[in-house]
């Protein structure tokens, strides 16, 4: 959670450091307003509204003051959260941003003492490395499955794709996210293709599942890249058993086979019935006759 609040902190504390804008007292007023929101005493709605308890009042006040900032940050970072995790981020932003405006108040007074508070907030790259060394593919599959159901993905899709990721894990022989490379994903698909799986199944089901799960992992901070993004198996095409045209011997045999039917016998021997519908196209092709002339 400190990663996301750290992004907000740096945007204010470092982005406005050289030009704080408001005076020191004005920045301190902002800090006091933030503290009032933490107590549920900032907005008019929080002070006069009817709430179940003080926690609900405080929640409404923090949402009113910081909700838009949190949503904008998460949207920019392409992060999906649950209600509980979003609330934890909101509280972290409230706490860290208050310290950030205090720093800007000092900057407005000409005090540019090195910022020590920012050291508590991990850089995004550092967080990625720590996540990669501690998380597993199975844990990512579980997290994706839970998040997918929470955001309304069909249960059938979520239930179908999670086992595919676990089968890929079994094929890898390890469960370390940090060791998965694009070549691993492609090699898995190639082996399935060599084993007889259809390219459409591999691309539209196996690779699609990995792309969805890894893509969500990138947006949620589990992975720096999507190793399945460009994976694809080319189609083998239909197996040809013969040439698409008729052989000369076949072409010569066609008229002879037609003359063996009663329709080509002498009129006295001919059965008074039209040729079978299946033979009409052949007769037209060889005689250039119209359909009405064939019946």
TrEMBL record:
Biased composition, class Basic and acidic residues, residue ranges:
262-272
**Matching InterPro entries:** DNA_brk_join_enz, Integrase_recombinase_N
> Per the record, which residues fall in region Disordered?
258-280
Q: Domain of life here?
A: Bacteria
Q: Which GO terms describe its molecular function?
A: DNA binding
Name the keywords, alphabetized.
DNA-binding
The residues forming the signal peptide are none
Q: What is this protein called?
A: Core-binding (CB) domain-containing protein
């Amino acid at each position: 959670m400190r990663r996301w609040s750290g992004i907000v902190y740096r945007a204010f504390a470092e982005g406005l450091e050289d030009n704080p804008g408001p005076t020191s007292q004005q920045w301190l007023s902002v800090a006091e307003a933030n503290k009032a929101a933490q107590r549920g005493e900032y907005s008019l709605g929080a002070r006069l509204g009817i709430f179940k308890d003080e926690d609900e009042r405080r929640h409404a006040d923090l949402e009113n003051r910081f909700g838009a900032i949190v949503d904008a940050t998460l949207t920019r970072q392409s992060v999906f959260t649950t209600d509980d995790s979003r609330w934890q981020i909101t509280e972290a932003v409230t706490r860290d941003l208050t310290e950030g405006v205090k720093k800007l108040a000092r900057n407005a007074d000409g005090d540019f003492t090195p910022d020590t508070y920012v050291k508590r907030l991990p850089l995004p790259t550092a967080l990625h490395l720590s996540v990669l060394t501690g998380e597993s593919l199975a844990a990512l599959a579980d997290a994706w499955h839970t998040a997918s159901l929470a955001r309304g993905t069909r249960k059938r899709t979520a239930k179908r794709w999670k086992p595919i990721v676990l089968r890929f894990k079994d094929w890898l022989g390890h469960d370390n996210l940090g060791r998965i490379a694009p070549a691993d994903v492609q090699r898995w698909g190639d082996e399935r293709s060599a084993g007889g799986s259809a390219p459409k199944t591999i691309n539209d089901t196996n690779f699609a599942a990995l792309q969805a799960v890894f893509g969500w992992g990138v947006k949620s901070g589990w992975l720096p890249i999507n190793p399945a993004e460009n994976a694809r198996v080319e189609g083998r095409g239909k197996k040809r058993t013969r040439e698409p045209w008729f052989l000369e011997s076949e072409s010569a045999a066609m008229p002879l086979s037609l003359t063996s039917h009663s329709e080509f016998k002498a009129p006295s021997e001919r059965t008074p019935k039209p040729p079978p519908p299946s033979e009409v196209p052949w007769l037209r092709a060889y005689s250039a006759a119209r359909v009405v002339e064939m019946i």
